[in-house]
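Onboarding guide, step 5: your first structure request.
Type a short instruction followed by the sequence, for example:

Predict the 3D structure of this protein.
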Amino acid sequence: LYGYEKTLPRLIEHSFWRSVLAVEMVWDSLVDFVRGRYTMDNISGPIGATQQIGEAAREGSFNLIFVISVISMNLGIMNMLPFPALDGGRMLFLIIELFRRKPLDPDVAAYIHFAGIVLLLGFMLFDQIPDWLSVAGFATIIAAGIFANSGSRPT
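The system replies with structure tokens like these:
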């Protein structure tokens, strides 16, 4: 938008293309994670996301809005993955039912969704390990400082 008059149509167009680029960035990151380009050290859970939001807020409102919009788009993309228990998994079931011309057995669908929820919760716990380790490391540093200053040691 630099060098152009900031009109409403141009702002809408610019916002649209920035959103497209953010979605591409999220998708490329997901593909690279699956391919092994990123490790667990490169991802973070809610604690890490909160830290990033706080850092963006300190840098200014534009950065804060951008980080929040990228997180929102990231959640939308993840929700549309064809994985049981997510909306994308439900859409996959509907496509399968469309081709079969009959609904899936509700018990089978329930078991598949349950397995998806278990896997999803397991991944969520796995995703939060780096966050908890950083918090545990921070807590250890604080505890060491407290006990060093008080003259007493934990038993």
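Each response can be followed by summary notes, for example: The mean pLDDT is 82.
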